[in-house]
Amino acid sequence: MASDESGYESGYDDELIAVRALGDPTRHRVYTAVARNTEPMSRDQIAALLDLPRSTAAFHLERLADAGLLTVEFRRLTGRTGPGSGRPAKVYVRPDAELSVSIPRRHYELAGEIMAEAIGRAVGDDVPVRDALHAAAVRGGRRLAGASADLDDALERAGLEPRVDGDDTVLGTCPFHRLARENPGVVCEINHAMLCGMAEAVGDDPGRVHLDAGAGRCCIRIAAAP
């Protein structure tokens, strides 16, 4: 799903809308029928395949298209061209975009991007793996923060649930929870570098971001601004 320069917030909202769209049983059947077909399908084809009124098929296809789960194209289904061949029919196809939603919100896709970039640099440019991971995580944090107003805003928009803890800020959710359980040393370092990148992106001091295994539900503690 699409995201904008403010980070991943708009993409996450789009994914939630898509999940709700699939909650209707008939709509889910329509989506599955299109997704499993190798060619785009028209309203008439879906109606015939699922034994639905054409108006019902059209309604659900349009809802799926509005939610970004299907892409609309126009094709001549008769095979004829030129005068008298009729208007192109509206057909639907599943886009290449992937849908993934987690509650509480996680950022496993971003973790994969960071690791892939780091491996590429380590292999291609002979950069030490740890250095490559740190640099890639900082860049990932900058992308995640995007055009946020400040660090608190960036944390909220990323779904990290910032909470006040005395004078400091801790996080209510870990962006890489499952990964951190298996490899806490590596993943927590990536998380720390990513949060430093978020701070840099909004003009804040990355020195405020500290590793603290006992902080909230994440390994990060953000000291109060001086």
Query: What helical percentage do the residues reach?
Result: 40-55%
Class per helix and strand makeup: alpha+beta
Q: Tell me the total number of β-strands.
A: 7
Question: What is the percentage of strand-forming residues?
Answer: 5-15%
Radius of gyration: 23 Å
Low-pLDDT regions:
1-8
Provide the residue-averaged pLDDT.
87
Q: Strand-and-helix sequence, N→C? A: HHEHHEEHHHEEHHEE
Shape: elongated
Q: How is the largest sheet built, in terms of strand order? A: 4-5-7-6
Distance between the termini: 39 Å
Question: Can you walk me through this structure?
Answer:
The relative contact order is 0.12. This protein has a four-stranded antiparallel sheet. Strands 1-3-2 form a three-stranded antiparallel sheet. The longest helix is centred in the C-terminal third of the chain and has 18 residues, at 184-201. It is built from nine helices and seven strands; from the N terminus they run ααβααββαααββααββ. Helix content is 49%, strand content 12%. The chain has two domains: 9-93, Orthogonal Bundle (Arc Repressor Mutant, subunit A), CATH 1.10.10; 108-222, no CATH class. Helix 6 crosses helix 9 (184-201). Strand 6 (209-211) and strand 7 (220-222) form a beta hairpin. With 226 residues, it is of the alpha+beta class. It has helices spanning 9-21, 25-36, 43-50, 54-66, 108-124, 129-145, 151-157, 177-182, 184-201, and strands at 41-42, 71-75, 89-93, 162-165, 168-171, 209-211, 220-222.
